[in-house]
Write a structure and sequence with these properties.
With 228 residues, the chain is α/β, with parallel strands linked by helices. The structure holds zinc ion.
Length: 228
């Protein structure tokens, strides 16, 4: 079955990473994360990677053009022909427009219906629920294991199962820092949500339910989205 391009949106804590992996496994299509691509290019020392590294070392954002080039390079892989999941891309409307054009220009990306439009799934979790999930994270300072007081608690409260160390809340997991991250995410994503919504290619999924229920709905949506 041809799946075509699938884009996942979801704030930190919405479970997007877990869902991406499950969708990729179910359909046997690759999951492409621009964060991973960037790291790979830097590690392999490709021309793109070297340029990107210099930019990041100056503390600047890697420009749209370079990110798009990296994605284009990755999509040439034969494993992308039946479909692929994009995670962390597009991040700007410029990137979204580029992707739409790229897919139209490249015949290998025809999905089951002969269209080449990316389909977007947006995992939505209410702000307070996200905040609760994210502030529940605890880390073991000794072995680095991560717990969540709500979803993955240690056997004894605030104590690591493996080595008995007292768990800590990392700075990144404190409420003010998380609130800032969530706000920044919303501000960044809103224009993209509007872009895909206007084109009837955005489907929202309530992510505030058991993981399996969310997965089942995501899989149905992708199959259905492909038969529209
Ligand atoms: Zn530990």
């Amino acid at each position: 079955m041809k799946i075509g391009p699938v884009i996942l949106f979801g704030p930190p804590g919405a479970g997007k990473g877990t869902q991406a992996k499950r969708i990729a496994d179910k359909f046997g299509i690759p999951q492409i994360s621009t964060g991973d691509l960037l790291r790979e290019n830097v590690e392999k020392g490709t021309e793109l990677g070297q340029n990107a590294r210099q930019i990041m070392q100056r503390g600047e954002l890697v420009p749209d053009r370079m990110v798009c080039d990296m994605v284009a390079e990755r999509l040439k892989g034969g494993d992308c022909e039946r479909g692929f999941i994009l995670d962390g891309f597009p991040r700007t409307v410029t990137q979204a427009v580029w992707l739409d054009n790229y897919l139209v220009e490249n015949t290998v990306f025809d999905n089951a219906n002969g269209t080449r439009a990316a389909f977007v799934l947006r995992f939505v979790v209410e702000y307070n629920a996200l905040l609760q999930r994210l502030t529940g994270r605890r880390t073991c300072p000794t072995c680095g294991r991560i717990y969540n007081v709500h979803t993955q608690p240690p056997r004894v409260a605030e104590v690591c199962d493996l080595d008995g160390s007292r768990l800590v809340t990392r700075k990144d997991d404190q409420e003010e820092v998380i609130a800032e991250r969530l706000k920044a995410y919303e501000a960044q994503t809103l224009p993209l949500v509007e872009y895909y919504h206007k084109r009837n290619r955005l489907l929202e999924i309530n992510g505030d339910r058991p993981v399996d229920v969310v997965t089942a709905e995501a899989l149905r949506a992708i199959e259905h989205g492909n038969s529209l």
